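Hi all, posting the design record for the shared folder.

TITLE: backbone redesign
STEP: 1 of 1
STRUCTURE INPUT:
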């Protein structure tokens, strides 16, 4: 299939290490890249982003085939990886560089994300307000190579981190096997 048929989605949900695996092996996903977006510095480094001085957020850019997986499905998967009621970061990762954001690349993506967020709010699943931001996409900068596919390269470290951060427990408690 030619690349012209692929689309991209950008999601921020805390540590980007933990945002790759849920999307990576799904049918229709071409690639998932860890990176930084939303800030003011071109080509920032991990150290710069985590200093909190660049305005960037850790995020993943997902390249997908919309004939095999829809943007709506990606947004639904996204909700199941985050605490949508925590604007101050995600799990053990605190600060703006870890805030939950759906970055839309088109008006269609914006509408779908807002509709999904409204449905989640109305579902009553969370007693706190849904505070995940929906913002226009900014330039996306690929993170350093050692961050790419971290869950595969450093699986033991990744597994300890995803559990120790509280992410796995939160997902199990709030989403179960969905």
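Okay, here is what came back for every position:
SEQUENCE:
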């Amino acid at each position: 299939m030619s690349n012209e048929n692929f689309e991209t989605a950008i999601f921020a949900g805390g540590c980007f290490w933990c945002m790759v695996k849920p999307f990576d092996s799904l049918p229709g996903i071409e690639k998932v890249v860890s990176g930084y977006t939303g800030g003011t510095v071109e080509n920032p480094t991990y150290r710069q982003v985590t200093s909190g001085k660049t305005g960037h957020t850790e995020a993943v850019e997902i390249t997908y085939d919309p004939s095999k997986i829809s943007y709506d499905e990606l947004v639904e998967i996204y909700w199941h990886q985050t605490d949508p009621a925590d604007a101050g970061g995600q799990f053990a990762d605190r600060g703006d560089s870890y805030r939950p954001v759906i970055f839309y690349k088109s008006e269609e993506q914006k509408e779908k994300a807002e509709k999904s967020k409204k449905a989640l709010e109305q579902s009553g699943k969370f007693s706190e307000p849904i505070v995940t931001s929906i913002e226009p996409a900014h330039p996306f900068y690929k993170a350093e190579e050692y961050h790419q596919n971290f869950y595969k390269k450093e699986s033991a470290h990744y597994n300890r981190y995803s559990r120790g951060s509280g992410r796995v427990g939160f997902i199990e408690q709030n989403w179960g096997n969905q």
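COMMENT: The two ends are 30 Å apart (CA to CA).
Let me know if anyone wants the other runs.
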